[in-house]
Specification:
The structure is a homodimer. Chain A is mainly α. Chain A has helices at about 5-20, 25-35, 40-45, 50-75, 80-95, 105-120, 120-145, 150-170, 175-180, 190-205. Chain A binds a DNA duplex through helix 3.
Chain lengths: ~220, ~220
DNA sequence: GTCCAATTTGTACAACTGTACAAATTGGAC
DNA sequence: GTCCAATTTGTACAGTTGTACAAATTGGAC
């Protein structure tokens, strides 16, 4: 018997899936990374799909619970702009920071979600839709109250962009380092969180009724060519 | 001899890769979708990796050329805000709209890029870094001139978020439809382009020296828990 | 028609995949 | 120590993978 081989298998599964996707990682890869045999995986999880489901359920519940908790705190802020900022942090921070201690970190799991979402893995898609949409809806509602007059479409699209920004920051951090000529560290997760929050703060805030306050008349050229 | 089997193979490769990723799609899948035999793929392209390289080179050059062209037009606009908007459109539109006529559309290729980027495919990564970074750098430079006083880090991070938003809008459009309760169509690409441009316009504009004009004092709660 | 290079097909190969299951091992209860 | 259930290992299986290559087919030049 091993000191929690099962935990090690789950952890390594997240790491490998987040790095190369679902299909590129074989059960033997996961077993090897854990110093174990292939059979241990079918013993503990039954199948590759069930292993994935277990990984999701392991992280999803505490992460969304933490989001709800921080959302609750944010909603107690009366100033609309400061509340908006706090709501955005409540959504982003748990995706980057480990929810329960020692489970490998929220960032790695979020990166895995990003990859599996891109791969269109049907198992993952069902789980995601079930587990995350409700939380996302609660956030959109909270955001809407911070930006009176904002159209629903704008809110939903911007929440989509927020998630996409989150994902891509984790998937390809080296691009940030490269494009900045090395002056910015794309792997600095605290900086990433702040940048994401500030950028989406601006994008949500611009949806307000008094949008374009001193800004552009939004009369850009639309025609193509 | 077929009417351009080679073209059909390339087209179907993009479609299938963009749908399920690189590893999940076998050469036999691509052949079957094209009504051809596996051998035709090794004959025309030599290997799966070389096929991928060919797909990239097929779309990359005209897409970035179109971007540069639109960027050139945008740079002739004197008003900084309107120029900013035009630059963003110059980056986004070619990713959604087919560059050369009838090559399957830029959106499908962009979706494929998104998926392969997420999968961390090493072949794709090298090609992307080579082909796209130079164009991205030119855009960042152009954007910087629209927002005097903006720190480089803010510009680079926001250009990262722009790309992430772009990618995720193509990868998971159904989420938009779902979260909006069906009132917004996530597959409406024209709407997606406009939303992406407007959202990132706001995020870039907020980087300006006179940022937070009438806005929040940016003194949000930073501590964790 | 003949000819021939380009193309397409069919098939074979070794390597790897997820899964199943018998055998071996472990470690605590007694 | 014995015993036994839980765990881990080893191995076998059928199916799929990318690749290689000989054979068949194509279609235009002559």
């Amino acid at each position: 018997m091993r000191p929690n081989l099962r935990e090690a298998l789950l952890r390594n599964a997240v790491t490998l899936f987040s790095r190369s996707g679902y299909n590129a990682v074989s059960l033997r890869d996961i077993a090897k990374a854990s110093g174990a045999n292939v059979g241990s995986l079918t013993y503990h999880f039954g199948s590759k799909a069930k292993l994935l489901r277990e990984v999701y359920e392991r992280h999803t519940v505490p992460m969304n619970a933490r989001r709800r908790e921080l959302l609750g705190e944010a909603l107690r802020i009366s100033d609309a702009d400061q509340r908006l900022m706090a709501i955005l942090r409540a959504y982003v921070v748990p995706a980057f920071v480990s929810s329960s201690e020692g489970d490998g970190g929220g960032a790695e799991f979020t990166r895995m979600r990003a990859v599996l979402s891109a791969e269109g893995n049907p198992d993952a898609q069902a789980i995601i839709a079930d587990a995350f949409d409700e939380t996302s809806r609660a956030f959109i509602k909270a955001l809407a109250d911070c930006v009176p007059g904002a159209p629903l479409g704008g809110l939903v699209w911007r929440s989509q962009f927020l998630l996409g920004s989150l994902y891509y920051a984790l998937i390809n951090p080296d691009r940030v380092t490269r494009l900045s000529g090395g002056t910015v560290d794309g792997n600095d997760r605290e900086a990433a969180v702040n940048q994401i929050v500030e950028a989406s703060y601006a994008s949500f805030r611009s949806l307000g009724a008094e949008a374009g306050q001193s800004a552009a008349p939004l009369k850009y050229a639309t025609e193509e060519k």
